[in-house]
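Sequence only, no structure available. Ideas?
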Amino acid sequence: MQGLAAPGFEGSGTLEATEITVSALSTGTILKLTKDKGDEVKKQDLLAEIDVEKLILQRAQLAAGLKEIEAGRIGFGPMTKPTSDMPLIWI
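Reply:
I predicted one. Tokens follow.
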């Protein structure tokens, strides 16, 4: 590519660049990075440890709420199929 280099500059070589975007499947605070920038990584390598305590607590809270909802149902439980003659229950 002529015209891009400073006058009197010439060179040749190989340029290799690979950039990959990495994202987490869950949110949380990064506690520890296990790799540095430029380190080679392989599939399934652990790159970071993420604090997921808030997610665990949120899941427990949602499970408890679901149990409350299921306990409050009238007429059928989790093993009974609703039929067209059963009353609708609005929650």
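The helical segments are 53-71.
Hope that gets you unstuck.
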